[in-house]
Amino acid sequence: MEKKFRAFVVNKVGDNFQSGIQQLNLNDLPDSDVTIRVQYSSVNYKDGLASIPNGKIVKTYPFIPGIDLAGIVVDSKDARFREGDEVIVTSYELGVSHFGGFSEYARVPGDWIVPLPKGMTLKEAMVYGTAGFTAALSIYHLEKHGITPESGEVLVTGATGGVGSMAVAMLAKKGYNVVASTGKESEHRYLQELGAKEIISREEIVGEKIPPLGKQRWAAAVDPVGGKTLAAIVSQLKYNGAVAVSGLTGGSDVSTTVFPFILRGVSILGVDSVYCPMEIRKELWQQMATDLKPAQLLETIGHEISLDELPNALQSILAGKAKGRYVVKL
Ligand SMILES: C=CC(=O)SCCNC(=O)CCNC(=O)[C@H](O)C(C)(C)COP(=O)(O)OP(=O)(O)OC[C@H]1O[C@@H](n2cnc3c(N)ncnc32)[C@H](O)[C@@H]1OP(=O)(O)O
Ligand SMILES: NC(=O)C1=CN([C@@H]2O[C@H](COP(=O)(O)OP(=O)(O)OC[C@H]3O[C@@H](n4cnc5c(N)ncnc54)[C@H](O)[C@@H]3O)[C@@H](O)[C@H]2O)C=CC1
Fold first, then answer.
1. Distance (Å, rounded) from C-alpha 167 to C-alpha 161?
2. Over the chain, what is the mean pLDDT?
């Protein structure tokens, strides 16, 4: 008899949208080269969007979301991978148009696979997940731009979220002077534990009106929030400063002027984790296993949940209530 396994499935027929845990078998998985027994997945904002009817993430239904997975290879037609290999899969079409990680089994192209680096467990890989990788990629872009710990204060917005928490902890570990911005007054202690030197409110960044040129404060910023927050950051960056932009939890429209760019030489650096070249991807996962790994990863940032608890976690991330990272045990 064909092996049965559990997965979180979303389906949309006309206006009728449904989601929940279902029993599937291996024949339901897409035809691809490497079959993986998923051990852990994680919950990203994009997964929240994938779990609702008009999130504009999922391309075809029925579908298994989950843009991250880590597990053990059980079968491979790709010579680069063997049964028993521990692997990470994030990005590309995973959880968007190719069945994703909210499933006990997954089948993916070998080109999407990163071998688990030495010094990292499968669970740690998924506490990081796409959010952690995006934080590392944001720092990579800022440092390529010339930012160093000596440049001055680095602002992290959405600081209690996935990308934000990881950015605070990684920057602090590298010796940066991190200022964390949050709307959650109850989480100041959490941010201090991650290494933030100062904590400011969302309103303190945006103020009542965003002037074309604000007081110069930030050497750099990691911004997964976007919208007005990004517009305000641009006006507050120091001469030659840069903001690494990854997200839109605060909105996708950004209204700014040319002045910070032409009078202060500031830069907006775009961060795309999905099609980041494999060479950089592997290098960053290696750093995440070593130099970038925060001591607080498992105990403070990661919260393990079961597949049955996933629907609540997806609602929580969409409501902006999630703290740190939900890691899903499969
Ligand atoms: C982990 C990563 C992230 O979290 S990224 C942030 C999450 N992603 C989003 O929130 C994007 C969700 N998508 C949208 O809101 C919309 O698709 C849109 C606003 C980006 C565009 O909407 P519109 O209705 O104007 O057009 P289409 O949806 O038909 O798309 C137009 C064009 O853009 C391509 N595209 C759509 N989404 C993406 C994407 N995520 N990455 C790259 N490109 C994207 C889409 O394929 C269309 O291009 P075409 O060449 O015509 O196929
Ligand atoms: N460009 C890329 O490759 C990637 C982009 N992203 C994007 O980054 C963003 C964050 O993703 P996650 O960390 O997974 O989400 P998350 O939900 O864990 O974190 C989002 C943070 O934004 C805060 N927030 C919500 N609404 C806000 C508002 N109006 N103003 C200020 N802050 C607000 C939340 O409180 C939370 O702290 C999302 O937009 C996501 O799509 C995430 C990963 C990769």
1. 10
2. 97
One fold for 4-116+296-329 and 131-270? no
Atom of ligand 2 nearest to the CA of 321: 35
Mean per-residue pLDDT for 137-157?
Answer: 98
Is the distance from CB of 91 to CB of 101 less than 8 angstroms? no
For the residues 233-245, what does the mean pLDDT come to?
A: 98
| pLDDT value, residue 1 | 59
Q: Where are the domains of the chain?
A: 4-116+296-329, 131-270
Provide the pLDDT confidence category of residue 2 given band limits of 50, 70 and 90. confident
Give the closest residue to 237 by CA, choosing from 263, 214, 259, 257: 214
pLDDT at 190: 98
> Residue 220 corresponds to which tokens in the numbers above?
């750099």
- Homologous superfamily (CATH) of 131-270 is NAD(P)-binding Rossmann-like Domain (3.40.50.720)
Mutating to test ligand 1, I would choose from 44, 56, 223, 252 the residue with most ligand atoms within 8 A of its C-beta, which is 56
Is 202 a pocket residue for ligand 2 (Cβ < 6 Å)?
yes
The whole-model pTM stands at 0.97
Name every protein residue with a CB atom under 6 angstroms from any ligand 1 atom.
44-46, 49, 56-57, 67, 130, 248, 273-274
Q: Which atom of ligand 1 has the smallest separation from the CA of 247? A: 6
Q: In CATH, which superfamily holds the domain spanning 4-116+296-329?
A: Medium-chain alcohol dehydrogenases, catalytic domain (3.90.180.10)
Residue 241: C-alpha distances to residues 200, 265, 309 (Å): 20, 7, 42
Residue 18: per-residue pLDDT? 97
Q: Report how far apart, in Å, the C-alpha atoms of 328 and of each of 88, 239, 294, 302 are.
A: 14, 42, 20, 10
The answer to whether residue 194 scores a pLDDT higher than 70 is yes
**Nearest in space to 216 (alpha carbons), one of 201, 232, 202, 198:** 232
Q: What digits encode the pLDDT tens for the residues 274-309?
A: 999 999 999 999 999 999 999 999 999 999 999 999
Residue 158, ligand 2, Cβ within 6 A: yes
